[in-house]
Amino acid sequence: MWYNNILETIGNTPLVKLNKVTKHLQGTILAKIETTNPGNSIKDRMAIKMIEDAEKSGLLKPGGTIIEGTSGNTGMGLAMAAVVKGYRCIFTTTDKQSKEKIDALRAFGAEVIVCPTNVAPEDPRSYYSVSSRLEKEVPNAWKANQYDNPSNAQAHYEQTGPEIWEQTAGKITHLVVGVGTGGTISGAARYLREKNPSIKVWGIDTYGSVFKKYKETGILDKNEIYPYITEGIGEDFLPANVDFSVIDHFEKVTDKDAALMTREIARQEGIFAGNSAGSAIAGLLQLGHSLAADDLVVVIFHDHGSRYMGKMYNEDWLRERGFLQDKKLTAKAILAKRGHQDTVTADVQHSIMETFNLMKALNISQIPVTQQGMVISKVTESDILNALLDNAALKSAPVETIASKGFPFVDLNTSIDKISTLIDKDNQAVLVEDQSGKINIITQYDIINAISEI
């Protein structure tokens, strides 16, 4: 058997039992693995549905341009369908989205415009506003508008909900979904509630988003809105696709808990899922006291971990945000083990011989070069030797004439693994600014000494 094109492979994603990350919960916890869709996310379902409905209604015409504001996954589904169907794509997204998502969109030939995150939706610079402007300016354009387009939720009413019902033989008791546009949770929940009104539906929200308070009070509180790191869930406005009537409860999850749980899902379950899966499981663990032994919970795993390699799956990124506290040595720990040590520097106007004598007196093989107190380059023994072998008269020349590219700078939370990759034959040390603003140098010797003391 074969398919006529890649779009025909969308859907029929597997349910997989979770065994370790949820081992302390009662009931059976199943993950709906949407990464097996061809675009590696659940957004493939609604992307093709929105396009097909727009074609039927005449809104999207042959050779037209698809425009959308997207965090990446919807854009991937739209771009994939556009390739098959012959459309052009222009997407707007925010600067908080992972580079991997943006690169993936461009890989399909889409044009991507990156807009600032920390502006209001109505601000002309926001990715919502820019996409709306482009729809008016670009000839033969159609904006998918995933937030308010009813085809979004309808796709999940027709596909995701029925799949879950069939795969669980109607035994599902809880549906847990991270909420962004609202299409997945609203469409799937509407279908499942028609089958069994007693099914509990839990939406996972993030701090900085408005959903939870609006559900509980009916108030859209602008004071609830602030920047957050978690991708794919939460909003600073109310999309039309969020049907609050079919959602029993919203649970907020911190950026840190979401990021760390994303990693744990891969490490404990062998499932390489995205940030919203981490949010969903972290939220479920917070609600776990509500579960009983005979409950059957389905959690949506929206997208693939490959789109978060530079973020949730990057230990240095996690450390920079204070999310990861482990036993692995960091620059801060290396400096602490070494103890106080003044960093010796040479000014750009020092002669080569003065610099060499300073290095000789202190028994060091490399030295940062400064200009008005700022480190701008470095000089090593090899630099001096090679210069004097070429021309002995250079002894009195300013050291800046032979200085080479400066040592790399790292921050205090940079891991020993990262530091080690930066130290090589061209860079024999790294520089780090401590909490007082003082510049410190870390050499290979310091790393070896720190490791030997573990």
TrEMBL record:
Protein name (record): Pyridoxal-phosphate dependent enzyme
PANTHER family: CYSTATHIONINE BETA-SYNTHASE
CC cofactor: pyridoxal 5'-phosphate
Keyword terms, alphabetized: CBS domain, Pyridoxal phosphate
Domain CBS: 336-394
Top-level lineage group: Bacteria
Pfam families: CBS, PALP
Matches recorded under PROSITE patterns: CBS (PS51371), CYS_SYNTHASE (PS00901)
Species for this entry: Sphingobacterium bambusae
UniProt KW Secreted keyword: no
